[in-house]
């Protein structure tokens, strides 16, 4: 295993900065700054859950051009690599889950599945299997292609500059509070909520649909990851746009988001699994 020390240093700094940001949020930051940070967390989370995950990785629904642009902007705010790279790795994860080709193989323990996989170079098996996937749908999407091409420019502006500048210029927040609370604490928190799907939801929870696989139903992860914690169901029925067996919005804000845009005609062809199929599998 080859350690990528640049990533070790970067993530180490981010987590220390996030702790300091939480301290500032409780002591000196304005309430508006904390609210702004929370809004950025939700928007960036939707860029991962409704965007990179349910739309582009699994094609569980279709979205028009304006909605795809909105989701791409939210995804850039999240800074978890481009949509193209995120979707490629996630498709590899599903196809080769808990094997040597799984980018965040949970068999290697919580730490590796959570963050360790980002602190070392990818295994050869992961890279080779990724090259073997059909990614033509991503390559032919102009929104995905544009974000990928200009990601190195768009990401710093969207993820770091705008979240920091807005509190300073709109409600006279200090640069220190804006940087550590609204930007670094928010960004690190969002990262960890996403990572918990790979770690906690692959280790702890019940498995009502397939007891032979690691992915589990984890309510805590569903709460923090905007509805992505119903993971045993998701790995059995990955084409369901809800990523859950639940028909309501309980602990699944992402489904409410997609349903809203479906009602106004911006999203359609929402794929679901018939209840009798779910119950038969259960």
Structural notes for this entry:
Strands 1-2 form a two-stranded antiparallel sheet. The longest helix has 27 residues, at 31-57. It is an all-alpha fold and 282 residues long. The mean pLDDT is 96. Helix 1 crosses helix 10 (175-198), helix 2 crosses helix 3 and helix 2 (31-57) runs parallel beside helix 10. The N and C termini lie far apart (39 Å). It has helices spanning 5-27, 31-57, 65-78, 83-95, 110-114, 124-131, 136-139, 142-149, 151-171, 175-198, 219-224, 231-236, 253-263, 275-281, and strands at 62-63, 267-268. It contains 14 helices and 2 strands, in the order H-H-E-H-H-H-H-H-H-H-H-H-H-H-E-H. Helix content is 63%, strand content 1%. Keywords: Fatty acid biosynthesis, Fatty acid metabolism, Iron, Lipid biosynthesis, Lipid metabolism, Membrane, Oxidoreductase, Transmembrane, Transmembrane helix. It comes from Ranatra chinensis. Belongs to the fatty acid desaturase type 1 family. This is Fatty acid desaturase domain-containing protein. Residues 37-238 form the Fatty acid desaturase domain.
How are the SSEs ordered, and which strands pair?
Layout: H1 5-27, H2 31-57, E1 62-63, H3 65-78, H4 83-95, H5 110-114, H6 124-131, H7 136-139, H8 142-149, H9 151-171, H10 175-198, H11 219-224, H12 231-236, H13 253-263, E2 267-268, H14 275-281
Antiparallel strand pairs: 1-2
Helix pairs in contact: 1-10, 2-3, 2-4, 2-10, 3-9, 9-10
Subcellular location: Membrane
Family: Belongs to the fatty acid desaturase type 1 family.
Organism: Ranatra chinensis
């Amino acid at each position: 295993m080859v350690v990528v020390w640049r990533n070790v240093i970067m993530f180490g700094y981010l987590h220390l900065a996030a702790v300091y940001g939480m301290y500032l949020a409780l002591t000196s930051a304005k309430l508006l700054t904390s609210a702004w940070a929370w809004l950025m967390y939700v928007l960036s989370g939707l860029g991962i859950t409704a965007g990179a995950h349910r739309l582009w990785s699994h094609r569980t629904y279709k979205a028009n051009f304006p909605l795809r642009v909105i989701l791409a902007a939210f995804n850039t705010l999240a800074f978890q690599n481009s949509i193209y790279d995120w979707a490629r790795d996630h498709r590899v994860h599903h196809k080769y889950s808990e094997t040597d080709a799984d980018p965040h193989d949970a068999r290697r323990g919580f730490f590796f599945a959570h963050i360790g996989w980002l602190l070392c170079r990818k295994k050869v098996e992961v890279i080779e299997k990724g090259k073997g996937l059909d990614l033509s749908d991503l390559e032919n999407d102009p929104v995905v292609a544009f974000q990928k091409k200009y990601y190195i420019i768009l990401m710093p502006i969207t993820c770091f500059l705008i979240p920091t500048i807005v509190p300073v210029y709109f409600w006279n927040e200090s640069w220190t509070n804006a940087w550590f609370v609204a930007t670094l604490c928010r960004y690190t928190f969002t990262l960890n909520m996403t990572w918990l799907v790979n770690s906690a939801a692959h280790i702890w929870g019940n498995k009502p649909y397939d007891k032979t696989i690691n992915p589990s139903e984890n309510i805590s992860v569903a709460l923090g990851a905007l509805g992505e914690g119903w993971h045993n169901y998701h790995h059995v029925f990955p084409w369901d746009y809800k990523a859950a067996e639940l028909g309501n919005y309980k602990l699944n804000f992402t489904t409410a988001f997609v349903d809203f845009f479906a009602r106004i005609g911006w999203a359609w062809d929402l794929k679901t699994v018939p209840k009798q199929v779910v119950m038969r599998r259960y």
